[in-house]
Write a structure and sequence with these properties.
By secondary structure, the protein is an alpha/beta fold. The chain contains 15 helices and 8 strands. It binds nicotinamide-adenine-dinucleotide (NAD) and zinc ion (ZN).
Amino acid sequence: MARFTLPRDLYHGKGALEALKTFKGKKAIVCVGGGSMKKFGFLDKTVNYLKEAGMEVELFEGIEPDPSVETVMKGADAMLKFQPDWIIAIGGGSPIDAAKAMWIKYEYPDTTFEDMCKVFGIPELRKKARFCAISSTSGTATEVTAFSIITDYQKGIKYPIADFEITPDVAIVDPELAETMPQKLVAHTGMDAITHAVEAYVSTAHCDYTDPLALHAIKMIKNDLVGSYNGDMAKRDSMHNAQCLAGMAFSNALLGIVHSMAHKTGAVFADKGAHIIHGAANAMYLPKVIAFNAKDPEAKKRYGEIADFIGLGGNNDDEKVKLLIDFLRKMNDDLKIPHCIKNYGADSYPCEQGFVPEETFLERLHDIAVNAIGDACTGSNPRQPSVEEMEKLLKCCYYDTEVDF
Ligand SMILES: NC(=O)c1ccc[n+]([C@@H]2O[C@H](COP(=O)([O-])OP(=O)(O)OC[C@H]3O[C@@H](n4cnc5c(N)ncnc54)[C@H](O)[C@@H]3O)[C@@H](O)[C@H]2O)c1
Ligand SMILES: [Zn+2]
């Protein structure tokens, strides 16, 4: 038996934010990040619509990018004091993910962060509150997913919380919110979205319900991401839907080792000034992982199907896999994202010698490889790497060398 879970309601299209006016409840806490939603007026609109719906509203502001365990605990305290029956999270993946984890702690105050990280181990929620997610970036699709990513900064590791219990009740996918994204954010979140769709399509947990969502998302992202990056607002709007479709696919089909590696490299070089942004990490690792996974015959066939669906050409699966890798690398070039960690500079712009020195990378390589294999996303990857293979793969991602194993 398999399960396919999505929010019960999804409001999309321009003006979808107004759906908040129809919500029924007494008290809503609005969880938000550092200021972009306030600056562009979306926070005020959210609060006003909820008040129009007759609710008392409180704000929990200042959730940082890549939210910490500490922020989650602080937010849960605020919820315990206010006792909301709606949790409304607005912004990018960071505030929405943080609010999901706060929700667990609010419903079960004795839960520790370690308890939350037990995959599919969350007790039944919705005894105190329901959850609405309003996304302002076009990538994580956390508004429809069963995941939340929280960073333990003491360990330098990102932990995924995974359970259909935290799939939001309502998702609002209003493209107006995404139109204010700066160019680099468009690039990062867009490459995150295509990675979700590609990993979901080849995942060992993919099924007839997830495949069409993944393929259609990949086709839309191929058509729209670079244009959106270059300022085409119709394409920007379309990307907001595309990333959400990719999210519906991967929330139910799970992901693979691109995400395992991104989770375990994102914060581990923070002491060198290198915070490897999630979408940029995925963009650099995806072509390498495709080459590695394509040694598995079933995965190779499925990469070939992706190449066919988006019209890349190629006479056999080997050629199709190569064309898919070339296409993704070209996308990185178009979005000014480097191909490897060595060249990863400020804001993810490519440069000769990036933040992460070779010796630091090599010193930490073994631990990163072990942690990546232990990540919750590794189990559904089509090919299971050994620690040695993971180390080799990570080296290819550092130096941009060919994956031939
Ligand atoms: N839950 C999931 O399923 C899932 C999937 C992939 C990634 N993630 C996680 O999500 C996080 C990344 O989320 P993200 O990429 O959406 O970015 P983010 O939420 O971290 O936001 C990045 C920055 O962009 C700003 N911003 C957000 N929306 C904006 C807008 N419309 N206009 C202008 N500025 C805006 C924010 O204020 C912030 O400074 C990471 O922690 C990642 O690990 C979660
Ligand atoms: Zn992701």
